[in-house]
Amino acid sequence: CQIHYDAQLAGGGSKHLSLSVDDDGVMRKQDFPALQYLSRGPLWRVARPARLPASRDMSVKTLEDTPFYTRSQVCVDGREFMHESLDLRRFCLPWVQFLLPFRMPRVT
Questions:
Q1: pTM of the predicted protein model
Q2: Domain locations in the chain?
């Protein structure tokens, strides 16, 4: 299992963490794959940068698409990945705050 976190900091700069987890649950830091840019979420257009192996054989299924968050299932060369993007700048916008009490329908 591989876990990759990317954070774009509000004051500029970024933080990255890439881990691998073996069958015994032991975690190790690892080099992170190059940044790939998946298409934006289909409805709310949240950006989906992802640390994935480069490939021409890639499919993306959007599982959740909200005004500030998206979750996707990505298949690259037959390998399955889960991807999440959270846009906290957008989350803080007044129009998004107004929508928070309303539940967004999930794509299933």
A1: 0.81
A2: 1-32, 35-108
